[in-house]
Write a structure and sequence with these properties.
Chain lengths: 424, 92
């Protein structure tokens, strides 16, 4: 292992000549975010020696704000996993629960913050990949509204779902990092301006009196009892501070996990077609014709989980199955979106346990892919609905951190920070 | 509606479409796993057709030439190059 808890795939020291709110701060950057001339592997053997020719927009923004980038953080290969065990560079260990996984796919980013080897971190969240490791490692992590943060320079896995977002020790430092990275970018046509007065840091008054919090019953009931106990105590604490609590049932979320995996795998099968070993990546040599060479290089470069998802995505999009899987998944996505819109007529923010389970032991779930997919049940609906969500630490159970997830309507990050700050 | 059985030939066919030359052991592993995963995906059959009311706008920009990546930077990560070009495998 190359670094403490194997949080980093590559140690770095990218200094900045900028000055700003991040001056003096160290930042870990997930290894699917491009850093100019510093290798960016996506946790894959395919890109083991790939050095991007340009910086991602978020990298430019943190450097311009005065930060120093200290490492490229470990991750599940191409973001495909929830434990950082599919990394081609060995798993990341959980600094707050040794012997257990750090979560994923941004496991290195959350572990770096939890261990104090970086003050702040950037992760990416396609179906929970920021919130999951934040919860397991006892730190704060936010998945922004789709379109709030530029994806330029992010090596794509599932474009319609993923966002780059902040991971930090406190709600305040999470808000400060979001202030730096949020905002429109000419290089990403999906970005837009949030309707926000002032900064996200300004929203942290911890005042929840008059706030209605909708507890998502389906997601809470499906969680481990130890998680439910911690979650119940946190909700009571919010109620004691003046929040009103209502229970909300969303029928559509029962189908969110299947819809998420069909959509993510389908997008992955198309996105990862770019890895042909000609412009970058593992070459399949020059003996056979191009189909044979590509198929050789891709077999050598991709790990098992990545192959599984590319194949299932290819299957879901193939003739005869497109309507059964992909089209139905899009229907489910629209249903989840309208269910959330309806829920936000009854509550200002929604709440659930971030993860339905406590962090598993390293190696515990490796050979059962479906069981691993199911730990994403509480986080994926948020990505399908394009809305923002934050995970905040709410103590421990059996020596392992537990996180609470708060969800707001699109561009309602301010509400998330305000409510989350009441939990600290 | 139930999932048709996934057999080794189906896995092989999809792997060929995706240009991944799987080992036999992986084909066998995926055959079993895909059956479970696709059965799980069958729950989507219960999803009603939803009238998606998307408010989408095109984001356009004018087509103005700008500085682009230098050729040397674009070629830097290529496993093989030939003068100023990427070198690819033969087409047929």
């Amino acid at each position: 292992m190359s670094s403490e808890y194997n949080a980093f795939i590559t140690d770095a020291s990218i200094e900045s000549d900028g000055e700003g709110v991040l001056s003096g701060a160290t930042v870990a950057v997930k290894d699917n975010i491009s850093t100019k001339d510093v290798r960016t592997t996506c946790g894959s053997a395919m890109l083991a020696s790939y050095e991007p020719p340009y910086d991602a927009t978020v990298v430019r923004r943190v450097l311009d704000a005065g930060a120093t980038i200290v490492g490229k953080a470990n991750m599940d290969e191409f973001g495909m996993g929830g434990t950082t065990e599919t990394s081609a560079f060995e798993p990341t260990e959980n600094p707050r629960a040794p012997g257990h996984v750090a979560g994923g796919s941004s496991g290195g980013s959350a572990a770096a913050v939890a261990a104090g080897v970086a003050d702040l971190a950037l992760g990416t969240d396609t179906g929970g990949s920021i919130r999951n490791p934040a919860a397991f490692c006892g730190v704060v992590g936010l998945k922004p509204t789709y379109g709030l943060v530029s994806r330029y320079g992010l090596i794509a896995y599932a474009n319609s779902l993923e966002q780059i977002g902040p991971i930090a020790p406190t709600v305040e430092s999470t808000a400060r990092l979001l202030d730096v990275i949020a905002g429109p970018d000419d290089h990403d046509g999906t970005t837009r301006t949030a309707d926000l007065d002032g900064s996200y840091v300004d929203t942290l008054d911890g005042d929840v009196s008059g706030t209605t919090i909708g507890v998502l019953k389906n997601l809470t009931d499906g969680s481990d009892e130890r998680v439910q106990t911690r979650f119940g105590a946190a909700i009571e604490a919010l109620e004691a501070q003046g929040a009103s609590i209502v229970e909300i049932e969303l029928e559509s979320v029962e189908h969110a996990l299947a819809a998420y995996y069909v959509i993510a795998m389908s997008e992955a099968s198309s996105n990862l077609a770019r890895f042909d070993g000609v412009r970058y990546g593992v070459s399949g040599g020059y003996d056979g014709d191009w189909n044979e060479a590509f198929a050789d290089g891709r077999n050598d470069g991709f790990g098992e989980e990545v192959k599984r998802r590319i194949l299932l995505g290819t299957y879901a999009l193939s003739a005869g199955y497109h309507d059964k899987y992909y089209k139905k998944a899009q229907d489910a996505r629209a249903w989840v979106k309208s269910d959330f819109a309806e829920a936000f007529t009854q509550a200002d923010v929604l709440a659930s346990p971030t993860m339905p389970v406590l962090a598993p032991k390293i190696g515990e779930n490796l050979d059962d892919p479906l069981a691993l997919y199911q730990i994403d049940a509480n986080t994926v609906p948020v990505n399908l609905a394009n809305v923002p969500a934050i995970s905040v630490p709410i103590g421990e159970a059996d020596g392992r951190p537990v996180g609470l997830q708060l969800i707001a309507p699109a561009f309602g990050e301010g509400r998330l920070f305000r409510t989350a700050s009441a939990l600290e | 509606m139930t999932t048709e059985t996934v057999n080794a030939d189906d896995v092989r066919h999809v792997a060929e479409l995706a240009r991944i030359d799987l080992e036999d052991a992986e084909i066998e592993l995926f055959e079993a796993q895909f059956a479970d995963i696709l059965e799980y995906f069958d729950s989507l059959d219960e999803v009603p057709a939803v009238d998606a009311d998307e408010e989408l706008v095109n984001v356009m920009r004018s087509d103005v030439p700008q500085e682009s990546l230098p050729q040397s930077a674009a070629l830097k990560n290529a496993p093989e190059t030939d003068d100023d070009y990427f070198k690819g495998p033969r087409v047929s």
